[in-house]
Design a protein that fits this description.
Elements (H helix, E strand, L loop, with lengths): L4 H11 L33 H4 L15 E3 L8 E2 L15 E4 L10 E7 L10 E9 L4 E2 L22 E2 L20 E10 L14 H9 L5 E11 L6
Parallel strand pairs: 2-9
Antiparallel strand pairs: 1-3, 3-6, 4-5, 4-8, 5-7, 8-9
Amino acid sequence: MFNPLILIESFIGLLLTSSKGYDSKLLHNKPVFTGFSAQGSSFPSSRPAEVAGSTQQGSSSLPPQVIEVTSPECGPSPSPMLKQHTPSGDNHFPHLTWTVPGEYIPLIKSFMLIVQDPDAPLPIAPVHGIFYDIPVDKREVVASDFEAVTNGSSDNNMLKGGFRYGKNLRGTIYGGPRPVCSHGPHRYAFMVIGLGEGVDTSGEKEAITRDRLEKEILVGEGKVVCWGLWWGTYENKLFG
């Protein structure tokens, strides 16, 4: 049955077409990452020489983007996401895989994964999902990994994939793409981060927020070892 409210949403989406592209709000564009640049401070001396001397291709102001992330389900970055990844479908997290250069692996204690939309008509890049304490030997995530553990454990933000989730904008484990109708294609940044230290969540009674995680991983040199990015896209059209 056709919902007439979608016409109002579509009209608003058209009016806000130019309100997008808040890339500066994405985590990997935070100024603290400049501490890893070739012109700025160097890597900690404990890093291997071949790592300490490396820089990210195409940018000297970010940590080394050496983790290769792709989606066997959708394709290489950037690729359209499927309806099953949206709230209109099954709201499944897309299947992602990543590889890490061998010289970085001994430095990584765990991975973190954050999903943001820089094209939402808001002066922020809304967080669709935050996941941390991802085991260092894990190299892929699938939809079933993001199901909550329901075995009576007091650890109420543990997932079946063996890692934890933080608080997203919708207060759910993961919120798939749901752009404003007729607002045009939205980009979704899936950022995989190799951490040199674990995330301290002691004292937290609920799933922690992005701000808390940022403070944990971005304060101090050496916490972020390396990172990688996969871009998914999705468009919510009025017809089709």
